[in-house]
Amino acid sequence: MPTDDDTTVIALCGSLRDGSYTRRALQHALSAAADAGAATELVDLREYDLPVYDADDDDAGDAPALTRTVREADAVLLGTPMYHGSYATPLKNALDYCGFDEFEDKTVGLLAVSGGHFPVTALEHLRSVCRALNAWVIPHQAAIPQAYDAFDGDTFVDDGLAERVATLGERAVQYASIEPDPTSFESQANVGAE
């Protein structure tokens, strides 16, 4: 698939665990994006000082570095473990520091892992957030159920699942410069992101 050599794909990892399945899966997706010709970067939220978001101090800690990294990317992969049917607090906090400047018309891919069944609600919640920020979310998404059985070290056990996650990275490159849809109803009502 032909790509622009200047395409940058980043991945925000919403898991802080050392042995994170989310991080392993995002690395796999980024590898596929790199193979498709993009420059890639894993944005490991463990490396950022991000206090709990306070709208009165939206430049706290490392927030300016985070928002600059997101803003400069052509496509963003959001990866999260599913906690209580939704996405993880570290990712929510990072996204709260972002707004339209970082996500409007941006191509976004979604990946979620769970210890149980398919993490569909976490993906739906992230899709809603992206819609409110007027991002263009890739229709293809990656769900990894029973993540503790999905990997042997850093490698996927199931070739079909490995291909699904790799496809997410490839689509991020393919659609990084897609012409976005008109502004969504949700984004027009999202004054807090301005």
Number of strands: 9
As a whole number of angstroms, the C-alpha radius of gyration is: 16 Å
CATH architecture: 3-Layer(aba) Sandwich
Provide a count of the helices.
7
Structural class: alpha/beta
CATH C-level: Alpha Beta
Strand proportion, as a percent range, falls in 15-25%
Order of helices and strands: EHEHEEHHEHEEEEHH
Question: At the fourth CATH level, what is the homologous superfamily?
Answer: Flavodoxin domain
Percent helix range: 25-40%
Mean pLDDT: 92
Parts with pLDDT < 50 across at least 5 consecutive residues: none
> Any idea how many domains?
1
Question: What is the fold-level CATH name, i.e. the topology?
Answer: Rossmann fold
| CA distance, first residue to last residue | 35 Å
The largest β sheet comes out as:
7 strands, mixed
Please tell me what the overall shape is: globular
Which features characterize this protein?
194 residues; alpha/beta; single chain; oxidoreductase activity; two-stranded antiparallel ribbon; Flavoprotein-like_sf; NAD(P)H-dependent FMN reductase; Rossmann fold; 7 helices; seven-stranded mixed sheet; 20% strand
